[in-house]
Specification:
2 copies of one chain form a homodimer. Chain A contains 10 helices and 12 strands. By secondary structure, chain A is α/β, with parallel strands linked by helices. At the A-B interface, helix 7 and helix 9 of A face helix 7 and helix 9 of B.
């Protein structure tokens, strides 16, 4: 019997997303499990909720470096509890279908290539902008099977230490975590900001959304904070263009909600730095699959895992 | 008649190197034209000196960004006189064989893959360390046809302006030009250094070789200068490993002569920064083709230009 569906799993951050996806590229059913406690238990449970006899394979996208044997995650600065868990073996033995694993941002790039903003490009770089920053590279229409840890590229050689061990990582200067850090530091010294009126003044409860909203309302501190992070994102984007000369840079993750200030500043900064000939022919555009990119890409890799 | 040779040309720096190469990977004849004045004239002349009826095609490796049509060089910060010259058309019309053009560091990577230090690797990054810093990436056994301007990756976001337009480029902190810059600055303020005794004290005549030699003789200023550049090279190498997770980083160019101080410092710095799992499985090794890498790679691309 030929099977026509795959399950795609996105274990990219604190949420677990599991989707049943058709070979035509539609999501048939989707589950989101917020605030994961433990990983194996809720993962196996969520899969069983959408599993059917028509599932050919299961694909898992997960934050971190996948090991060489493609069976588990070696290192995951943002999801340390997954390190070393024999996740592929466990899922395969429980459900009896092939299981593939890949880095979450790589998987999102595959999703965008399959049915998203990357559909019409043969070469693009995807950056996922959230708590951390992930990267995936599509080259010649295919996923480059490399680490693509673009968020852990040092852009300030003598900069702050990152949880990955490196110094001055792009992620430390341009992610949601960085934005919150800039905001807290600025608020500790600032007299005026809309942000001080939120959460009864508890600035540690602020979210990037709060900051973007305040910025749109004209709060100067919030605008400065988003521009600062955007500028560094621009440095990272520029490096990606100078290295990969892609047709497009596709930006995904929660922070693209702050497009008008944060991303626009990034594009402006990148335009000043990048080889002009490369920049002139590039598009910098948002993900079109949003939260579903990971599910879609993981399902695609599962459906095509026997192709090689 | 099936032809068994190609001409490989390396227009990477101030020298022009032209070689007649067999399909088996041997250099039959080689010409080096130092200190180029003009480019087209000496280039066409040098080709005619080694051209035979058995030449199937000609490959040209040249410093800079190749245009999308693969006919000329769009931008070349280190060889501006080549920009816009219709070099492919001119060579093709004069010699009547197919002509291919590619970036010089990309071509050197192909050379190392064909018969050099990269022979046994499917995935490696090549960095050419000279006046500037170039990059080439071999992925899945093949040249990645991207800009790979690894020397123009910003590693100090707010650093010095580079001739490419970017700020804080790796090349500005770790190349031969950077080493000479560090040395001159240090000597202007230093009281003691072997380097002051050379060229009747004209520190602007110093070469990287002088500095390495002095360093080996125990000159502290020279050691510090090489270590400084090596440290930044390590940042660049670390970024390359975190992005490409290669099996090897191969280092070529004149500066690898300073291996024991400059490169060793770079390896030490990279070891501190890179994802441990990636660093543990990597080799950082010198080019084995040296000056011939460009000729070899350009000839290889010429011999295989009809393969696609």
């Amino acid at each position: 019997m030929i099977k026509h569906h795959a399950i795609g799993i996105d274990l990219g951050g604190t949420n677990l997303r599991v989707g049943l996806v058709s070979e035509g590229g539609s999501i048939v059913e989707k589950i989101k499990v917020p605030s994961l406690e433990g990983i194996e238990e809720p993962l196996l449970h969520a899969i069983s909720e959408v599993f059917t006899d028509d599932v050919a394979a299961i694909g898992i996208g997960v934050a971190g470096l996948i090991n060489r044997e493609r069976t588990a995650v070696d290192v995951s600065p943002n999801l340390p509890s997954i390190e070393g868990v024999k996740i592929v073996d466990e899922v395969r033995s429980k459900f009896g279908v092939p299981v593939v694993i890949e880095n979450d941002a790589n998987v999102a790039a595959v999703g965008e290539k399959w049915t998203g903003a990357g559909r019409d490009f043969k070469n693009f770089v995807l950056l996922t902008l959230g708590t951390g920053i992930g990267g995936g590279v599509i080259h010649d229409g295919m996923l480059m099977d490399v680490s693509a840890e673009l968020g852990h590229m040092s852009i300030i050689a003598n900069g702050v230490k990152c949880s990955c061990g490196n110094y001055g990582c792009l992620e430390s200067y341009a992610s949601a975590r960085a934005i919150l850090g800039y905001a807290v530091t600025a608020l500790e010294h600032a007299s005026q900001s809309i942000l001080k009126e939120l959460y009864q003044g508890n600035i540690y409860k602020l979210t990037p959304e709060d900051i973007y909203k305040a910025a749109l309302e004209g709060d100067n501190l919030s605008r400065d904070v988003l521009r600062e992070a955007g500028k560094y994102l621009g440095v990272g984007i520029s490096n990606c263009i100078n290295i990969f000369s892609p047709e497009a840079v596709i930006l995904g993750g929660g922070l693209i909600g702050a497009w008008n200030i944060y991303i626009k500043e990034a594009i402006r900064e990148a335009s000043k730095r990048t080889f002009k000939k490369l920049f002139d022919s590039i598009q910098i555009i948002p993900s079109s699959l949003g939260d579903n990119a990971g599910i879609m890409g993981a399902a695609y890799l599962a459906l095509h895992s026997g192709d090689e």
